[in-house]
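Lab notebook, design round three. We kept the backbone fixed and only want residue identities now. Task for the bench partner: fill in a sequence for the structure below.
Input structure tokens:
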């Protein structure tokens, strides 16, 4: 139940067991998240006894079957070796592949997204993604990139370079269009009181104000 509650939508997180089960039945992204959480828990578990190690092998075999079933029914595959914070929201089913990446809390991922490893042999690396990131449909993020907090990656974007906090990037290759952040796209329980988000909103507002002042000064000089 704890693993399920990690990624429950806000309205179900506030309800009891019945709401959680209902969300699991109707949300295919939540099904994939739960299977990932179970697999990751097995991967990081290091039993000290022979019986525990046998149980771990059986659990890994069961997870393999569950993961392949979820992949065939939803199109979503999340590598159990990925390190993903709580609040993962996969908005839609359909051909979403998440490799052994590092990702922060409260990420929103839409459909047909690919996040994984790339690079030359011996130099292959996976992305490191911050908190409260929104990733649009068809986006591709591969290689040893760093994606900051509160980033928006637009539909069909191909990210080939690291992106700073609050960047909004579109295109192939992705280019930064603004620094408005993901504050309107990523919503979750307690967002208004999240200290990290509050600080990020303040920084984004300050940056927008500074940019507007610079543009006004440039127009005045012209």
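Proposed sequence:
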């Amino acid at each position: 139940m704890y693993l399920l509650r990690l990624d429950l939508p806000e309205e179900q997180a506030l309800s009891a067991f019945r709401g959680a089960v209902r969300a699991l039945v109707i949300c295919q992204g939540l099904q994939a998240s739960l299977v990932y959480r179970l697999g990751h828990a097995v991967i990081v578990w290091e039993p000290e006894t022979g019986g525990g190690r046998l149980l771990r092998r059986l659990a890994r075999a069961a997870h393999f079957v569950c993961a392949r079933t979820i992949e065939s029914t939803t199109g979503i595959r999340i590598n159990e070796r990925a390190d993903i914070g709580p609040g993962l929201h996969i908005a839609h089913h359909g051909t979403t592949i998440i490799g052994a990446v590092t990702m922060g809390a409260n990420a929103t991922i839409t459909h047909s997204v690919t996040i994984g490893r790339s690079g030359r042999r011996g130099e292959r690396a996976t992305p490191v993604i911050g908190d409260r990131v929104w990733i649009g449909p068809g986006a591709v993020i591969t290689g040893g990139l760093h994606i900051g907090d509160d980033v928006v990656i637009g539909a069909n974007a191909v990210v080939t370079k690291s992106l700073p906090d609050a960047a909004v990037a579109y295109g192939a290759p992705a280019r930064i269009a603004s620094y408005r952040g993901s504050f309107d796209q990523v919503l979750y329980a307690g967002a208004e009181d999240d200290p990290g988000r509050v600080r990020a909103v303040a920084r984004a507002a300050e940056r927008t104000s500074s940019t507007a002042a610079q543009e006004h000064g440039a127009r005045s000089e012209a």
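Keep this in mind before ordering anything: The mean pLDDT is 86.
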